[in-house]
Specification:
By secondary structure, the protein is mainly beta. It has one helix and nine strands; from the N terminus they run E-E-E-E-E-E-E-E-E-H. The mean pLDDT is 89.
C-alpha cells in the first residue's frame, strides 16, 4: 500500500477524508495501481488547476461545491453530486466557485499503457 492511500477494508465518508487547507489544493490518493488512480482533491477559495492534457480518460465526481471544468476550452458547470468525463488528450482545467472537492478516477487501457511504454524514455 502507498503511504498516501486510504486504509483498505474500512468504510470512509469520502467528503471527510480530505480537509480544506487555506490557500491550497490538496490531493489524497484513494487507490493507485498500474492500471489507474483514484484520488480525492480539495480546493480552497481562489485555487484551481491550470490547463493540462493527459493520455487517459478521467471521470470527475463533484462531492462538495461547484466549479467550471474546462474541456477543450469549453466551460462545463458542475455541482455537488454531478460528474463529468474528461476525454483522453483533451486539454482541461478546473476553476472552482469557492471551496470545492472532487474525486478523480483515471483508468489506463492496455493499449494506452503499451503506447506509454514505447514513448517513455527508460
Amino acid at each position: 500500500m502507498h503511504d498516501d492511500e486510504v486504509t483498505k477494508s474500512q468504510p470512509h465518508i469520502i467528503v471527510e477524508i480530505i480537509e480544506y487547507i487555506p490557500n491550497s489544493v490538496v490531493t489524497k490518493t484513494i487507490l493507485k495501481k498500474a492500471t489507474g488512480v483514484i484520488s480525492v482533491m480539495s480546493f480552497d477559495t481562489g485555487e484551481g488547476l491550470s490547463e493540462k492534457t493527459i493520455p487517459y480518460d478521467s471521470f470527475v465526481q463533484v462531492i462538495d461545491g461547484q466549479a467550471e471544468i474546462y474541456i477543450n476550452h469549453i466551460a462545463r458547470h458542475v455541482n455537488t453530486g454531478e460528474s463529468i468525463v474528461i476525454p483522453a488528450h483533451a486539454p482541461s482545467s478546473v476553476s472552482p466557485n469557492g471551496r470545492f472537492k472532487m474525486i478523480v478516477t483515471t483508468i489506463k487501457s492496455i493499449l494506452e499503457q503499451a503506447n506509454d511504454a514505447v514513448i517513455s524514455p527508460t
